[in-house]
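Give me the fold.
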Amino acid sequence: MNISELVLSLYGIGAIKFGKFRLTSGLESPIYIDLRVAISHPSIYKQLVNAMVNLLNNRDVDLIAGIETAGIPWASMVAYELGKGLVYVRKEAKEHGTSRLVEGDLKPGVKIIVIDDVITTGGSIVRAIRILRGQGGSVVAAAAFVDREQGGLEVIRREGVDAVALLSITSILNILLNAGAISRGLYEEVINYLVKTRVA
């Protein structure tokens, strides 16, 4: 399955939606990427994980870090395929047990790649980077499956971390437009929205 087929498959299962959506960042958006749907479709899940593994394969790291909740199934599979350990960053510390913000065995000085499903403003990944660094980790890169091209990659790079994404919203829109899945009008509406809502 190539990238175009993968995008069309994601659209087909409802992982790429058009309408009116409120994002985690607080922004309202005419497009929503819901990769939680993809984890219920093994062949699509595997294709996305394999593509991310290929993107990250030559990096010298010890751990993959996921972000609660949406990033955990992606980080878990990528860590498994790369033969790396896994940690994950909680949204807030548990009120019981260890009360930790980072779950897993995080030793000082370990090199980490943070993985999330989608980057919008970069805020979730920046928070994870700061928490991991605060606990002695060395975050060397961040990766997402989709970059919404609203400035998030640039925000992450300002933390001194290399940031990459497997797919961009523009590439997704171009594939859907060329396949006749969306209209030129919808394409332009989303592109205009992306330009107007960039954070960096």
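The domain at 3-196 is CATH 3.40.50.2020 (Rossmann fold).
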